[in-house]
């Protein structure tokens, strides 16, 4: 009938604690089934932590006590996996390189803010809004469960004294019936409370995770450059669950421990006030023990959480870079990296487990001292005829129930402390500010039919934390349907222009406008509906090709998708796949080449059909042949749209209405291809170096029939996928001043 929590606790390194098969030191009488349960099985309890169940394995316990609560005895509860590791000695005993690892983590990741437990609690408590009535109901169940336990123990005393001692069966029925009724009530309340508690806790986790995930998606690019992806994953999983332990389970645990303490203490005083007093004199020992151990829990919890994140990061980065690993024989180096992180985690984990066990054993010794003192006193009282055996047994039973909630109150602090390490890491994410926000409702411009005029007016920009500006006084205008090409040396600030145009950042000086409206007055979703970005890296969802194209315009029909794929010269290779448009792909897919993936992305942009297009190095990473195959679909995509193309590849430069050359964040030259070549400056040099190796020098005699754009007049029948021969000259080079529209 007791409500209890059997889930994994917020102990340090919980994520890894949950892994099946992990060895963990059991308590003396701990059976194998005391493994940490999966999270779904987490239950809130009348006691804040499972390990703090009454543990009488170290002390004489009346056998009948097994039957007093309709649940496995406390000593069968698991311990270490579900509790904070009060490893005060984590630092004292940890080898020196633990500290080295910790400082290395600190160097790699921005410093996480340090928080007090109550501050962390206050930050997350508002997330329980909407579920507080359920929390109240759970607390009512917890209180009723504690009451039924109290009643059961009193009935046990009654039964012992009136039925067992008198040897009378007739005296048995009345207390037995009452006991049974109390047990049924306790079982019903336990079931309802536990079910509700799991539901409420999981809802909290759901809500918190959605909140963090939603927030993360609004964060600016530099946040992701500064945090390792694996570590962020760990924060969204392990750390989120630790917060639940702090907030929902923490509250229920506190209520449970408080009420259980009050009920059992009242009953103990009612049974024998003098023995109860003796019991309470020793109670502060539990609190002292918890206090002694709480000091370094947070430190080791932090270490474990950080190591969890580091392991996930290494695995994720290593798998993502598998080609580099294999091609450069980095297998041993990667293994060493993982071993180093895993060892850091292992050290923190072992130190935590060791301290946890030490704390547990110390508490058991304290409990034993208390029980022995009470039994000694009780034996003396019985010998004086002032106490019955039933009373002593009931009193001992109360002790078995009383100490755990007292101990839990102390341990609750440890739980909160350990969970605070997760809270700090999560708040580090939640407190990161998005670089831009939607305009306030009153300041937002109402949606309008966008024509596609893009203007940068004296724009300056500096990345957060950067010591020098990336853009300084950049001005450019692209009228509807114009093609503006931005080029310049690597690091000149070209991609930054695209980030400002998509409003990933706001400029520090000047303004960026769409159809004359400053971007900070345009609702973000409206802006991004009307400005399509094709970034350097091809963005592919882990989904079917159909969905990958359809996400350009939610609600698009199959015909729309196919039309876009045809325009992007992707239809033929898609239909050649066994599952056609339903083929599942992912960013590392081997089924499609880089050029084919790029054409899927172009089809998506086609479907999006926005008036402004930003192409950031659209042919980067593609070989000459693949680049050529992408150019025709690109031309179709650009047709009739304002296009800002950021590129080193000057093959399309003759087509541009205007070319801007950036150097160290400044526009150093502006003009058409011809004008800039004639100028003989930076552009001419870039063009010269490009022509030295570029494909623009090819002179085409191709036979392709693509007539979507441009003036090609080939007569062949080659498809986009088929090798179009030597039409490269007409496709992408050797045709100065050819206009796209
Ligand atoms: N998040 C950031 N924080 C600080 N500096 C950054 C950040 N992102 C880029 N920079 C710096 O801004 C400058 C311009 O970067 P940007 O990516 O715009 O250059 P680019 O001209 O597009 O280069 P490339 O042609 O190599 O892609 C570089 O010096 C870069 O190091």
From TrEMBL:
It holds the Pfam family ABC_membrane. Residues 701-717 have a biased composition (Gly residues). The keyword Cell inner membrane applies. The keyword Cell division does not apply. Residues 1-112, 696-741 are annotated as: Disordered. The chain crosses the membrane at residues 134-156, 176-201, 246-269, 275-293, 386-403. GO terms for molecular function: ABC-type oligopeptide transporter activity; ATP binding; ATP hydrolysis activity. Residues 136-418 form the ABC transmembrane type-1 domain. Keywords: ATP-binding, Cell inner membrane, Cell membrane, Membrane, Nucleotide-binding, Transmembrane, Transmembrane helix, Transport. PROSITE patterns: ABC_TM1F (PS50929), ABC_TRANSPORTER_1 (PS00211), ABC_TRANSPORTER_2 (PS50893). One of its GO terms (cellular component) is plasma membrane. Residues 454-689 form the ABC transporter domain. It is found in: Cell inner membrane. Residues 88-108, 723-741 have a biased composition (Basic and acidic residues). CDD domains: ABC_6TM_exporter_like. It comes from the Bacteria. Residues 14-27 have a biased composition (Basic residues). This is ABC transporter ATP-binding protein. It comes from Streptomyces sparsogenes DSM 40356.
